[in-house]
Design a protein that fits this description.
- One of its GO terms (molecular function) is olfactory receptor activity.
- It is found in: Cell membrane.
- This is Olfactory receptor.
- The structure is a single chain.
- This protein has a three-stranded mixed beta sheet with strand order 2-1-3.
- It contains twelve helices and three strands.
- It is mostly helical.
- Helices cover 73% and strands 3% of the residues.
Length: 315
């Protein structure tokens, strides 16, 4: 790596300042209320789906196991960044420790990678169910379903481990202000005392592979699904297949669109405001809408939620 020995006279950074949204106190209070509401709704919506799927034995099938895993992931994904954002809205210092910054960086990127992989697995599941319906029960068994979910989580948490460790070893000697809402590689590279082009290239290459690789896999899967759906003789079957696939593609478009803008174009200089908006889009907006897009349009999920609410009323 192109990292020279730092001068011993440098005063190394022990904490960073997450600048977030620099605005008047009244606006920050309003943003705090808005973000807190979004966070609460995200936890409630995804938590309700998990409980409904857990309580209804009829939904213990691969499609809904993947959906439950996805909702569980979304809860942790949004929790890796939003609580710190909320604290910073009410704080004048807006500081985050060096270790805390890199832990947030690691969990945010690891959970995001896991989400990319899980979306690809869910597309593969729909491809098998629609294009190979007779073989689907024998291929997508409960054992395989569990293995695929575990592989997504393990690979997701290993994917960015090396570049994050390398970035954490770089010397940061000030300034320590990160003009962002989260600890992100772009601002961290800018704050380093020395340049590390190889580490930067590795980070953006891994981002490109996981984003474009999974996106192209999803696109290919749904191209085959669309071809199979158009050949269906039943209009009801076509409508049901389009509804399921349309929901998934809507989530994929929201999530991958903002990711591609941020992490696959290191040569483009995005404004700080654009970076913050794009990050909020895939870190908060997508997890909020996922329960509505995926599940509340689904009759089985609606029935399971009614049953769950009915049990609470009885209790």
């Amino acid at each position: 790596m192109n990292i020279s020995e730092p001068d011993s006279s440098f005063a190394f950074v022990r904490e960073f300042i997450l600048l977030g949204f620099s605005c008047e106190w009244k606006i920050q209070s309003l943003l705090f209320s808005l973000f807190l509401t979004i966070y609460a709704l995200t936890l409630t919506g995804n938590g309700a789906i998990i409980c409904a799927l857990w309580c209804d034995q009829r939904l213990h099938i691969p499609m809904y196991i993947f959906l439950g895993s996805f909702s569980f992931l979304e809860i942790w994904y949004v929790s890796s960044t939003v609580p710190k954002m909320l604290v910073n809205f009410l704080s004048h210092k807006k500081t985050i420790s060096f270790v805390g910054c890199f832990l947030q960086f690691y969990f945010f990127f690891s959970l995001g990678t896991t989400e990319c992989l899980l979306l690809a697995v869910m597309a593969f599941d729909r491809y098998l169910a629609i294009c190979h319906p007779l073989h689907y029960p024998n291929i997508m068994t409960g054992h395989l379903c569990t293995k695929l979910v575990l592989i997504c989580w393990v690979c997701g948490f290993l994917w960015f481990l090396i570049p994050i460790v390398l970035i954490s070893q770089m010397p940061f000697c000030g300034p320590n202000i990160i003009d962002h809402v989260v600890c992100d590689p772009g601002p961290l590279f800018a704050l380093a005392c020395v340049s590390a082009p190889k580490t930067q290239l590795l980070c953006y290459s891994l981002s490109s592979i996981v984003i474009f690789g999974n996106f192209l896999f999803i696109l290919g899967s749904y191209t085959l699904v669309l071809t199979a759906v158009l050949r269906m003789p039943s209009a009801t079957g076509r409508q049901k297949a389009f509804s399921t696939c349309g929901s998934h593609l809507a989530v994929v478009s929201l999530f991958y669109g903002s990711l591609m803008v941020m992490y696959v174009s290191p040569g483009l200089r995005h404004s700080a405001g654009m970076q913050k908006v794009a990050t909020l889009f895939y870190a908060m907006v997508t997890p909020l809408f996922n329960p509505f897009i995926y599940s509340f349009r689904n009759k089985e999920i609606k029935a399971a939620l009614r049953k769950l609410l009915g049990n609470f009323n009885i209790m």
